Queue: 2 jobs
Job 1
Amino acid sequence: MMRNLFAFLLISMSVTTFAGTQNAVQSCYSDKLKAPNGAKVGTELFIIIDQTTVFDSELKQSIANNIKPFLQPGNALSVTKFSAFTKGHYTDVVVNIVLDAELSQAERNDVSKPVLAKFDQCSKSQLKLAGQAIGGGLKAAFGDSTNTIDKSDVLTSLKDISARVKKSTADRKIVLLASDMLENSSLSSFYAKQAVRLIDPKKELEIVTKNGAFGDFGGADVFVIGAGLLSEDVQSAKVYRSPQVMGSLKNFWEEWFDRSKAKLMDFGAPALLSPVS
C-alpha cells in the first residue's frame, strides 16, 4: 500500500495546480462554525526539493512515504523548489496547505448536529484534497528536475528558504530536504572531476561566514534525503564516494544547520536510515 503512495498522489491530482503561499485547501470553518480561539498549527512540514538533483522512483517513493503521516488535522505542509539562480529555475513555493484542527469534545458538544456533520464531512474531503495538492506539488517540482544546470546554489537558496521556516508559529517545524547537498556556485564547489570531492568543513564554513551565507530556521528539525547523489552518467562510471568524503560532507552540513538554528536529524546518503518523525 505504501509503495504505491507516490503514484497515487500523482494520479489523483487534478489538472489544477497551486502556487504561492495561499492555502491550497479551503477551510471547513464557516459563519456557523468559527475556528476555536487560539487555534495553532501542530506540526508544519516544509518539503524542499533541489531541482538540480534527479531522483529515481525509489527515492521519490521514500519522500512520499515520509510525507503521508503528516497529512493530519491541525498540521501544515508545503512544497518548495530551488535550483540555481538562472532563468526559469528560481526558488518558489509550489503548494502550501494548512489543515483545520479537530474540534475537542467540549467544542463538539456546543455545535448543532447538522453543522457538525457538515464539518466532519468537509474535514474528510479536506484531507483527500490535501493529498492531491501535495502530489501535484511533488509532480511539478520533480518534473522540472534536471542535471543539465551547471550551477547549484544550495547554500544561498537554503538561507532564503529558512526565513519562511522561521516565521512559522507551529509547535514543531520539520524540514524534509531532498537534495544532493553539493554546492556548486560562485561561493564554492563540492565537486572535483565530476565526483564529490573531499572538502575541509572548517575551510568551507569560513567561506560561508565571510559571505554571510548562514540561515535561520528558527529551531527546525532537518531530514536530508539524497546527499551525495550523483547523476546517472556519473553513477554508471562507478565513481567511488569514500566514507571520508561523505563524512566530511555530513560534518559540514551538521555545523551549517547548527549555526543556522536548526538540528540535522538524519543525513540520508542517499536514503534516510529511519522515517521522518
Note: The helical segments are 5-12, 57-67, 105-109, 113-143, 154-167, 201-210, 232-236, 243-259.
Job 2
Amino acid sequence: MLSHERVWAAIDALAARYSLSASGLARRAGLDSTAFNRSKRMSADGRPRWPSTESLAKIIEATGSTLDELFALIEGKPAADNDALPRQVSPVPLVGFAQAGAGGFFDDAGFPAGEGWDLIELPGRAPEGTYALGIQGDSMLPLYRHGDILIVDPNAPVHRGDRVVVKTAGGEVMAKVLEKQTTKAIALLSLNPEHENRTIPMTEVEWVARVIWASQ
C-alpha cells in the first residue's frame, strides 16, 4: 500500500532529481509555491493530507518524468536504480534583456528569431517556443536579482496576476505583474516598489509573454 510518508518523500526526491526545491517544483508545475510545503502535509487537526492526483500529474508533466519514475521513488528503490531512469532535459535559447530590447531578435509573436543563441538546459520537457531571459541589473528586485533566469512561454495564456515579460514598440523590455489587459491598454504592476506601475496602450505593445518559471 502507498504510505503518506513515502508519497511525500517521493515528491521531495523528484524535486531534488531535477535540481528543484519542493516549492520550485510546485511553481514549475503551475501550482501555488506553498503546495508542497511541509506545513501543508498535515491538516490542522493532525490528519495526513495527501497530494491530489492532479498535482502528481502536473509535476510529472512539468519535469518530463514518468509515472514509473515516480512509483520507483515512492517504493524507495535504491539510488542506483533511480539513477538508471532517464532524465529528460530541454535546451532552450538564452537571451539577455539587452538583446531582447534590440531590433531583429524577436518575431512579431515574441519568439526568438534567427540562430546562434546560447542555450541552457531545463529539467523536464519545455513547451515549444520556450526561451530563457537573463536578468540584468536591479530593476526587478526584490523578486528577481541580477543573474536570475526567467523561463518565458509566448504560447501560454496570460491572466491577471501572472508575471509577464512585455516588449514595447520602442524596444523597452520589462518584467511585471499583469494587473489588467484590454483591447486598448495593458496595466502592469512593478516588481520593484522603487519603480512605478505602468499602463501602456496596446498600440505600443509588441508582445506579452508569460513567465512560467524562474531559477533563483
Note: The radius of gyration is 19 Å.
